[in-house]
Specification:
Strand content: 15-25%
CATH topology: Rossmann fold
Radius of gyration: 19 Å
Shape: globular
CATH superfamily: Flavodoxin domain
Largest sheet: 5 strands, parallel
Strand order of the largest sheet: 2-1-3-6-7
Mean pLDDT: 96
């Protein structure tokens, strides 16, 4: 299995919880025999889709932009069996960088209209890879991922598209605290196990997902601790100004 792991976090590797989780997932996939290539979108130039439809008319299947998406990433995307879309949760959604990446896969779609089970859609020009969504959030409960989940479920619902799994890790900033070391170890081990399961069975067991999303602390205690932290950081910021 050929896997493309897309990291859309703007943070460097020592700060990114998205990258921490993605690395564990990728390790599990490699353990199970997959060939995994990781791409950090922060290091790439991806221009925004102009909506010109040149890739549908003048040069079918080829984007007008000549950038890293056209020259490198889109061909790798098409060659993959599975793509992991990894993103921190920004405003209850994926990052703008990942959204731009997905929009630039438009050349893989034909301009025509078809109807399947009451839904109108554009048919695919190429066979496209199956998808897995991985997201982390600083907020402590899974409810904050609802908008992202609804979006990706609809995005990958038309014929020819497959969403194999959604992996959501709340309280991602807090989980690296030494206070939660045992839980963090189990979360990361479960994420690695999820990678193995994806390669072996194209799905993740509910038991593994429950370990990944396990709660760290009650909401009230979380809020109090987080507020104290931010007050300290603000005070330090003012003193350095």
């Amino acid at each position: 299995m050929k896997v493309l792991a897309i990291n859309s976090s703007p943070r460097s590797s020592d700060q990114s919880k998205t990258e921490l989780m993605l690395n564990c997932l990728s390790k599990g996939m490699r353990d199970a025999g997959a060939e995994v290539e990781t791409v950090a979108l922060r290091e790439k130039t991806i221009k925004h889709c102009r909506g010109c439809f040149t890739c549908w008319t003048k040069t079918p299947g080829t984007c007008i932009h000549k950038d890293d998406m056209t020259n490198e990433l889109f061909p790798k995307w098409l060659e993959s069996d599975l793509v992991v879309y990894a993103t921190p949760l920004y405003n209850y959604a994926m990052t703008a960088t990942l959204k731009a990446f997905i929009e630039r896969t438009l050349p893989s779609i034909q301009p025509f209209f078809e109807i399947h089970e009451g839904r109108m859609f554009h048919p695919l020009r190429h066979k496209i890879p199956a998808a897995v969504i991985l997201s982390v959030s600083g907020m402590p409960d899974e409810g904050h991922f609802r908008a992202l989940s609804a979006h990706v479920k609809y995005l990958f619902a038309s014929p020819g598209r497959r969403l194999l799994a959604e992996i959501y890790r709340p309280a991602a900033e807090a989980m690296i605290s030494p206070f939660f070391k045992d839980k963090l170890d189990d979360i990361l081990a479960a994420t690695t196990q999820a990678g193995r399961e994806l390669v072996r069975s194209m799905k993740i067991s509910s038991e593994t997902l429950e370990r990944i999303t396990q709660p760290l602390i009650d909401a009230q205690s979380f809020a109090e601790a987080a507020n104290d932290m931010w007050k300290t950081l603000i005070a330090e910021g003012k003193s350095r100004g």
